[in-house]
Structure formats: C-alpha cells, structure tokens
UniProtKB/TrEMBL annotation:
Pfam families: Cu-oxidase_2 (PF07731). Belongs to the multicopper oxidase family. This is L-ascorbate oxidase. Residues 2-68 form the Plastocyanin-like domain. InterPro entries: Cu-oxidase_C, Cupredoxin. One of its GO terms (molecular function) is oxidoreductase activity.
C-alpha cells in the first residue's frame, strides 16, 4: 500500500514472505494497494468494488482459471449471446468444453 500513483519501484515493498490473508482490502483516496491472489480451484473469479456506484462504473475484474482437464465440472461454455466489448470484442471466443 502506498500514497500517490503506483510505480514499479513499489514492488520492493511487497510482503511476499508472510502476507496476511484477507477477504477485503482498503484502497484509500489518492493511494494504491497491491494484493496477492491464490485461486484454489478452476472457474471464473470476480474481483470488485463493494460500493455499487464504483461497481457500476466498471471497477470490476473477472479472472478465469482454466482447468487443464477442460471439463464442464469446473466451468461452463461461454454463452453464444454473451456481449463482448472493448479490446476483447474482436477476439475469438474460447473453444467449447464439449
């Protein structure tokens, strides 16, 4: 965590040895927070703001953890009518699982 804008020099302050496990973090005004994520199973994970007005403005990130088995047990196919926007709109959809 630090004041102002994040820079690559901030990586020197990361606690990679005994990081505290949390479900939420705080990001104070005009500051930043670095987080280390551990995904314990395959699927689609959502990282988002708790405040609806920020969530609505797009402060949300989806992370897809793909299983090497490519099984419907872990994640369903992307719906055919899924809306894509931005840079991913022109990319091909991932191959179906079955």
């Amino acid at each position: 965590m630090g004041h102002g804008k994040w820079t690559p020099a901030g990586r020197r302050t990361y606690n990679l040895q005994d990081a505290v496990s949390r479900h939420t973090i705080q990001v104070y005004p005009r500051s930043w927070s670095a987080i280390m994520l551990t995904f314990d199973n395959a699927g689609l994970w959502s990282l988002r703001s708790e405040m609806w007005e920020r969530h609505y403005l797009g402060q949300q990130l989806y992370v897809s953890v793909v299983s090497p088995a490519r099984s419907l047990r872990d994640e369903y196919n992307m719906p055919d009518d899924a809306l894509l926007c931005g840079d991913v709109a022109s990319l091909p959809k991932p191959p179906p699982y079955v």
